[in-house]
Amino acid sequence: MPLESSLLKNIKVLYVEDEEEILEQMLFFLKKRVGKLIVAQNGKEGLEAFKEDRPDIIISDLKMPIMDGLSMAREIRKISDVPIIITTAFSDKEIILKAVDVGIENYIVKPIDARELTEVLRKTAIKVLKDKGRLLAVRNKVLTKEDKIGIEEQIKNAIGKFIKDRTGKGPQNIKAFIHSNVLEIEVLGTLTRMEKTLLELDKNKSIIKYNREILYRDHEEQMKEIIKEYLIWDIKLDSIEVDLSDDKTLLKFEIY
């Protein structure tokens, strides 16, 4: 699943609609895309569902029995600034102005265009997740913390296997960390028994350090191919820092 599509899987949506046919179509559409979907069939039910479930985004029809979409929105605005997207069969300026006064995030004219709704939801989800501190930016793309942790874990495991295949010894520990436009991979405990023995003589330190650096430099393209299986951006190896005293190597990749 593309990272930006998976954003919606982190969102809880309340959908309020009284027309059965439209409701069925939208249920089929939304259930596949959002993390959790709550349904109500008029503004009164929608208000009660909001108070009980506290969704991240509300999508509501405008004209409904018992309580319409604007009346529901006014009541919700007394207790929350949750984004509300109105769907309406009318492109009426007066109605739209009233919606703006109530603090409606956006509106979509029926019949609902799936691509338009997806884009509105995506932009709204980005805003919601940023406000909650659950969204991170890398270059001009966005990903959730869950996505980031998952990618870091996959890269960590893949690079650990790569090192073991090349040296015959897997790292004692390895960490991957994405921040801003940098991917850092910290590798701990990779020195072989022979290397540790050689390090007892100071004259061998520069040779072992050089060999470690060459290992990563010579296999830069292979490491990039491994990492690109999990990361959607292009990268290049920026620096290699080898600390033999702590048996630690820090690889820094630039994301661009």
From TrEMBL:
Annotated SUPFAM superfamilies: CheY-like
Pfam annotation, one family: Response_reg
Biological process, per Gene Ontology: phosphorelay signal transduction system
Membrane-spanning residues: none
Residues modified to 4-aspartylphosphate: 61
PROSITE patterns reported for this sequence: RESPONSE_REGULATORY
Keyword Nuclease in annotation: no
SMART domains per record: REC
Limits of the Response regulatory domain: 12-125
Alphabetical keyword list: Phosphoprotein
Protein's name in the database: DUF2294 family protein
The species this protein was found in: Anaeromonas frigoriresistens
